[in-house]
Design brief:
heterodimer; A: 115 residues; alpha/beta; B: 820 residues; alpha+beta; Beta-Lactamase; Phosphatase 2c, domain 1; 4 domains; six-stranded antiparallel beta sheet; five-stranded antiparallel beta sheet; 21 helices; 26 strands
Chain lengths: 115, 820
């Protein structure tokens, strides 16, 4: 499992940046959620750096929607950054780009919460 | 044609004016001459003649039809007896010259007693013919004299020559100015008057006048010329004046004349008789012709033969120099067009001319207004009225006599065409010719109607059968030959069918079936069943399930007949053939390099009867062949089905891969049916070709890493197959399908990849029967995005049942530069 997916969390104080590496599918999604969900409930902004995520399937997209809803419930910001083409295509095809906040780069510390 | 006409009752030994013929004439003439000759003198001879005439012509009751018969002669005043002289003197009221001619009533016989004695006739006893004026003043005499072709002056002068004179005939006595005593005519119901006479020696004459209650036909009156001559010969045996015999010389002359007249009469009568016989024989011949032509035409269903036959027969019957038959036909697009046949003239004679148009002359016929017969068409007011030719085009066969008869359909009253006959001489076509042409046109109309109806029905049946035949699709790696041959005998379409249906994931269904029976019913049932099979096939039902569904459907739609059907599906990925059979003949499977064998025997009952159908699977690798057929190919009157199937297997084992498949099929059909199939033959032959094809399979387990293994597998296979262009969508599709199988069934079976050169098929089998459905997820919906992704990346996707679960499949089109 470890060789398939890893999540590297960078706590910047005002917000948290989590770097997701590997492949995210129905097999690894539960583990991913377990690792990231706790970061959202703190109420601080969460940015997912997806520059090292090489694959995502519909289970992964479901996990992203779930995180988005959790963040919204506690009034926290949730954003994605540095999407690879496969991931971006999957998000676009499923219209999730209308729901999720997507950045080209990881915003500077403290900037992610600003609209 | 022989019609029985009852012979009219002819009085025995008597005569009938209605039937009076040549033999009667000869007999009567001879009788009268003998009677007159053997009498005791002139007056007794005259009396015998009138009696014999009156007694001779009797009706069915033995009653004479002659109301009154009289014989007059002219006599000089000097030759009269005393009593008669006194009458003359009374009438002329003065002295009478010795040679004053007096018309004397010599004998009279009638129905009323008062008519039987000359002495009792007041008006006609004796008429002095003092001058031409007297003759003119005596109407009856005048009429007789002029009627007999004499000059009044000659009679007065006693200058009547010895030459015979005519017969005087009044066919219709009532109202005739030649019969002055109309009161007598009315009272006695006189219909005709006939008088005849002749010359006596010394310029005297005699005449016989007959008043008949029946009509005396003109041709019978003619025959009395001979009677007149023979009466004259008889009378000449006696001295007209005084007593004793007359000179032999006069009698000989009279007899010679008598003979001459008889000969002449016989000659003309014989000629007429021969003409009548010829006419009757010709008529019988033509009636015969008409019958024969009619029978032949109405039994003919081949249009070309029919119209030529009709034209020839009609041209011959009308004695035309040439005849043409123009007839209208309707082509397959419903357009009317006109063709023609010719008789008596080579086709080249008309090649240069346009079709007859609706000119004033032709319109009457083409509009069906009726027959047109002209003794000289060039004198017809309708002739020559229309541009550009104003008559016959230059170089046209010369036509004077013209006869045209429309041909009108007895069923639709539509004008089907027209017969046209021509002759270069005027006045050639008679009423008889017209009748014959009309007769043949009538038969031709019936025959044309029949032929048109027959060909319409035949066309409909063929059309129906053809429209039911499928278009066999081009399928990669399969060479398919199909043949449908309607029965060589009979026109009714049969209920055989075959079908080739492209299924998802590169699979193909082959169908063969037979609706028992023939005709439109069988064909329409076949059409319904064929569509039912197609519909269920597109639902991708397994063969056994498909037949079960169709069988339930057939149970409720097909009442009177039963339907057999074999359904086989070829799957190129695992190279198998899966089939089920509803009572149809077994199929023949020929493995590559092996012996042909029957498959699909005894797997189920016919559609509409069977409820459960067994399903089997056989290897169908490249090189294998599948042959599906109907009983028309293997069963015949000479051979059982089993023997036929053995022969078919023999033929298939000899097939060489080098031969063109269609040619091979044709030869096979010819050999198996001996070129004469008495039932429809449907044949579907499939040859699985070697060719570019890639397949790979990965067994699946339900663990979290299976997605990753699937991705590695797909990436590696596609890289090996040089399909890197489709790796990204293939990864997404494969993972979604695997994900679906793992999460919903928990029992994934295998992931398969198949590339046929044009498309990549990815399918995942599982042990779950629930069918996945795509639903559009709400934007915050966490689930249900899997098939949405598959749908976005795959060209097609779907699912099908398997005996122990299902397969979800998706296809991605690959760049066409791939080797095919």
């Amino acid at each position: 499992m470890d060789e398939l997916l890893s999540v590297d969390v960078d706590d910047r104080g005002t917000d948290v940046v989590a770097k997701v590496s590997g492949e995210l599918d129905f097999g690894t999604a539960p583990q991913f959620l377990q690792a990231v969900e706790s970061l959202v409930v703190t109420g601080r902004s969460l940015v997912l750096d997806l520059s090292e995520l090489t694959f995502c399937d519909s289970s992964a997209l479901s996990a992203l929607v779930r995180l988005h809803k959790r963040a919204k419930a506690v009034g926290a910001e949730f954003a994605l950054a540095r999407l690879r083409p496969q991931v971006e295509a999957a998000i676009t095809v499923t219209m999730l780009h209308r729901l999720l906040v997507i950045h080209q780069e990881v915003p500077a510390a403290g900037k992610s919460s600003q609209p | 044609m022989i019609t029985d006409v009852p012979a009219p009752r002819r009085p025995r030994g008597g005569y009938d004016f209605g039937l009076f013929g040549l033999s009667d004439m000869v007999r009567l003439a001879a009788e009268l001459r003998t009677t007159a000759e053997s009498a005791e003198g002139f007056v007794p001879a005259a009396t015998a003649v009138v009696r014999q005439l009156r007694d001779g012509f009797v009706d069915g009751d033995g009653e004479s039809v002659l109301e009154l018969v009289r014989l007059f002669s002219t006599r000089r005043f000097a030759d009269l007896g005393d009593e008669l002289r006194r009458i003359v003197l009374e009438q002329v009221q003065g002295p009478a010259a010795a040679d004053l001619r007096c018309l004397t009533l010599e004998a009279t016989v009638g129905r009323e007693p008062g008519l039987n004695d000359p002495a009792l006739s007041r008006r006609h006893r004796l008429i002095p013919l003092a001058s031409t004026a007297t003759v003119a003043a005596a109407p009856m005499v005048s009429a007789l004299v002029s009627g007999l072709g004499l000059q009044a002056a000659d009679v007065v002068a006693g200058a009547v020559g010895s030459g015979r004179f005519d017969v005087f005939h009044v066919a219709e006595a009532a109202g005739s100015r030649h019969v002055p005593d109309q009161e007598f005519v009315r009272r006695h119901g006189i219909r005709s008057v006939l008088a005849f006479g002749g010359a006596l020696p010394d310029g005297e004459m005699f005449c016989v006048v007959m008043f008949a209650r029946v009509v005396i036909p003109a041709e019978v009156a003619d025959l009395f010329r001979a009677v007149a001559v023979s009466v004259r010969a008889g009378l000449l045996a006696h001295s007209h004046v005084g007593s004793g015999r007359v000179g032999l010389e006069a009698q000989r002359a009279a007899l010679r004349e008598h003979l001459q007249v008889l000969e002449e009469s016989s000659r003309s009568q014989a000629a007429e008789l021969e003409e009548a016989v010829r006419r009757l024989r010709a008529e019988a011949d033509l009636v015969d012709t008409l019958q024969v032509v009619g029978r032949r035409l109405t039994a003919q269903l081949d249009l070309d033969a029919l119209v030529q036959d009709a034209t020839d027969a009609a041209t011959q019957a009308t004695e035309a120099e040439f005849g043409a038959f123009f007839y209208n036909l309707i082509d397959q697009y419903g357009e009317s067009y006109t063709l023609y046949t010719l008789s008596g003239v080579p086709r080249e004679a008309f090649d240069r001319f346009p079709m007859p148009r609706k000119t004033a002359v032709f319109a009457a016929t083409f509009d069906g207004r009726g027959v047109m017969r002209s003794d000289d068409i060039t004198r017809d007011p309708r002739y020559g009225r229309n541009a550009p030719h104003f008559g016959m085009p230059a170089g046209h066969l010369p036509v004077r006599s013209y006869l045209a008869v429309p041909v009108i359909s007895p069923s639709s009253q539509q004008v089907l065409g027209g017969f046209f006959f021509g002759h270069s001489e005027p006045g050639r076509f008679t009423a008889r010719h017209q009748q014959l042409a009309e007769g043949i046109a009538g038969y031709a109309a019936i025959a044309l109607d029949n032929a048109r109806l027959f060909s319409a029905q035949q066309r409909m049946a063929t059309e129906l059968a053809r429209s039911m035949l499928p278009t066999v699709p081009q399928i990669a790696h399969l060479e398919i030959a199909s043949r449908y041959l309607p029965a060589a005998t009979g026109s009714e379409v049969g209920g055989d069918w075959f079908d080739v249906i492209e299924l998802p994931a590169g699979r193909t269904a082959f169908v063969i079936g037979d609706v028992v029976g023939r005709g439109v019913t069988a064909a329409s049932v076949m059409g319904q069943i064929r569509m039912a099979v197609r519909s269920y096939a597109l639902l991708d039902l397994p063969p056994a399930d498909l037949l079960r569904h169709v069988s339930h459907l057939a149970e409720h739609t097909v009442k009177t007949t039963f339907v057999t059907c074999l359904y086989a599906v070829h799957d190129p990925v695992d190279q198998t053939l899966t089939f089920a059979n509803a009572g149809h003949l077994p199929a023949v499977l020929t493995p590559p390099g092996g012996h042909s064998q029957l498959i699909g025997e005894g797997l189920g009952m016919p559609l509409g009867v069977g409820d459960t159908f067994l399903q089997q699977q056989a290897e169908f690798p490249p090189g294998a062949r599948l042959t599906l057929t109907t009983d028309g190919l293997v069963e015949s009157r000479r051979r059982t089905v089993a023997a036929g199937l053995r022969d078919l297997i023999g033929e298939l084992d000899q097939l060489s891969g080098d031969e063109d498949l269609r040619t091979a099929c044709d030869r096979m059909i010819d050999r198996l049916t001996d070129n004469e199939h008495d039932d429809d033959v449907a044949l579907l032959h499939v040859h699985h070709l070697d060719g570019y094809r890639r397949t790979a399979s990965l067994p699946l387990t339900a663990d979290p890493a299976v997605g990753a293994r699937a991705r590695t597998f797909v990436r590696e296979q596609l890289t090996r197959w040089e399909l890197t262009e489709v790796v990204e969508p293939a990864l997404t599709v494969a993972v979604e399908l695997v994900s679906n199988a793992v999460r919903h069934s928990g029992r994934p079976v295998a992931l398969r990849l198949h590339h046929d050169g044009a498309r990549l098929t990815i399918d995942v089998a599982d042990h779950d029967v629930a069918t996945p459905r795509m639903s559009e997820p709400g934007v915050e919906e966490e689930r249900h995005r899997g098939l949405y992704l598959v749908n976005a990346y795959a060209a097609r996707w779907g699912t099908r049942s398997t005996p122990d679960g299902k397969v979800v499949w998706a296809e991605i089109d690959t760049p066409s530069s791939r080797p095919g």
